[in-house]
Every structure is written in structure tokens, then in C-alpha cells.
From TrEMBL:
Biological-process GO terms, alphabetical: rRNA 3'-end processing; rRNA catabolic process; tRNA processing
Domain Exoribonuclease phosphorolytic: 10-140, 159-223
PROSITE patterns, A to Z: RIBONUCLEASE_PH (PS01277)
Enzyme class label: transferase
GO molecular function, one term: tRNA binding
Subunit structure: Homohexameric ring arranged as a trimer of dimers.
Entry similarity comment: Belongs to the RNase PH family.
A Pfam family hit: RNase_PH
CDD domains: RNase_PH_bact (cd11362)
Lineage, highest ranks first: Bacteria, Pseudomonadati, Pseudomonadota, Alphaproteobacteria, Rhodospirillales
SUPFAM superfamilies the UniProt entry points to: Ribonuclease PH domain 2-like (SSF55666), Ribosomal protein S5 domain 2-like (SSF54211)
Identification of the protein by name: Ribonuclease PH
Enzyme Commission (EC) number: 2.7.7.56
């Protein structure tokens, strides 16, 4: 039995609430159970130096955890004067995931920065960030279309992410903190709405896991991603 009482293939309750920031061009709070992440998209009419005069745009991301998003307070990274390796890794992952479904040439020479701020953490903050960040990005593009700065939304597909793991010998979907901290293996899957694989991060914690178990995790992830994409479509009014 999972600590939460969920079935092995059951997601936590997922809520994607849009329009939560007055000023951002796109915003979404992604709630995966007790993990809550605020995702905002900001449009800038400029690009990084390496893209100037190329006609292409850019999508990038920043990620951070509020001091009391966890059980005990952690200092802000700004107070420490540097970001942790974990923060760098996660924000690069979010950016790569979003760019994988963005037509950078079609968005023109502008940049969209996604900020993912963890309000409350209970496992799976990076997967909630990616899932919510896509919604915020889509909303920002929709705004540019309404302003007649773009002809259409330059996204080729949906992208979402979910965690899976081996908990007490069983493959389970969408790990919360009690499972994540005690899993024999855990993995994060980033996939598109059409089933394409963007990235897989998998780690054995106690002992190596088998190819059969990996395929079990992949099957769970594919089913979970399909549900998340439907939630994204509903939040965006696309269904």
C-alpha cells in the first residue's frame, strides 16, 4: 500500500490554475497534490546575444524554492550568493523541455522567460514545474497572437513531465515525498503529447533495477503524461 493510499498507476490530484499573476503574460499554479509551483511567463522583445539578427527567438527558465516550501526553512540562494547545482540542473531541464516543442523561428526575435517558484514541496517539483510552465508559455503566446504580434501559437506539441519509481518492490506513478525519499529507484520522464521522449532521468537508490522494471516505469509515465496533457488542454480551453 502506498502511504497516500493511491493505486500504483494513480496520479495525485492535479490542478492547473491559470491567470494567477496580474502582470505576467502567462501564469499558472501547478498543484500536484501538496506540491504547488507558481509558473509565470514574461515576454521580452530581445534575444540573447548569440541569437541577434538570426530571426529566431528563445525560451529559457529559472527555478527556485521559497524558504518554507519544505519542512524546515532553507536560506534563499540569493542570500548565499550563488545557486546550487540542483537549481541549475532543474532550470536547464525546464528550458530544454519547453524549447523541444517551440518553433523558435516562428516566434521571432523575442525571448520568453519562465519563472518556476516552488510555494510548497512534497516531491516532484521539477515535473510540476515543467507541466505548469508549458501552460504559462502557451498563454503568453496566445497573448502575442491577440496583440497581432504573432500569427499563431508557435508550439508544435504539448510537453509535460511526471515521476515514477520502484516503491516497496512495485512500480508506482507520481511519487510524493514519503515515496521519493524511500524509493528503491526513481525516474523523471519528460514527454510530448504525441508520446515523444524529451528526457528521462533515472536513478537506482538501493540496488540496480531491471530492464523489465524500467519498461514498467515507462508505461506508467506514458499513461500519466496523457492525463497531464488533457489537464493542460482543459486549463487552456483547448477541449
Amino acid at each position: 500500500m502506498r502511504p497516500s493510499g493511491r493505486a500504483p498507476d494513480q496520479l495525485r490530484t492535479v490542478i492547473l490554475e491559470t491567470g494567477v499573476s496580474r502582470h505576467a503574460e502567462g501564469s499558472c499554479i501547478a498543484k500536484f497534490g501538496d506540491t504547488h509551483v507558481l509558473c509565470t511567463a514574461s515576454v521580452e522583445e530581445k534575444v540573447p546575444p548569440f541569437l541577434r539578427n538570426t530571426g529566431k527567438g528563445w525560451v529559457t527558465a529559472e527555478y527556485g524554492m521559497l524558504p518554507r516550501s519544505t519542512h524546515t526553512r532553507t536560506d534563499r540562494e540569493a542570500a548565499k550568493g550563488k545557486q546550487s547545482g540542483r537549481t541549475h540542473e532543474i532550470q536547464r531541464l525546464i528550458g530544454r523541455s519547453l524549447r523541444s516543442v517551440t518553433d523558435l523561428a516562428a516566434m521571432g526575435e523575442r525571448q520568453i522567460k519562465i519563472d518556476c517558484d516552488v510555494l510548497q514541496a512534497d516531491g516532484g517539483t521539477r515535473t510540476a514545474s515543467i507541466t505548469g510552465a508549458f501552460v504559462a508559455l502557451h498563454l503568453a503566446f496566445q497573448r502575442l497572437v491577440r496583440l497581432e504580434l504573432l500569427k499563431s501559437v508557435p508550439l508544435t506539441d504539448h510537453v509535460a513531465a511526471i515521476s515514477c519509481g520502484i516503491y516497496e518492490g512495485t512500480a508506482v506513478l507520481d511519487l510524493d515525498y514519503p515515496e521519493d525519499s524511500n524509493a528503491q529507484a526513481d525516474a523523471n520522464f519528460v514527454m510530448t503529447g504525441t508520446g515523444g521522449i524529451v528526457e528521462i532521468q533515472g536513478t537506482a537508490e538501493e540496488r540496480p533495477f531491471s530492464r523489465t522494471q524500467f519498461l514498467e516505469l515507462t508505461d506508467l509515465a506514458e499513461a500519466g503524461i496523457r492525463q497531464l496533457v488533457e489537464a493542460q488542454k482543459k486549463a487552456l480551453g483547448l477541449t
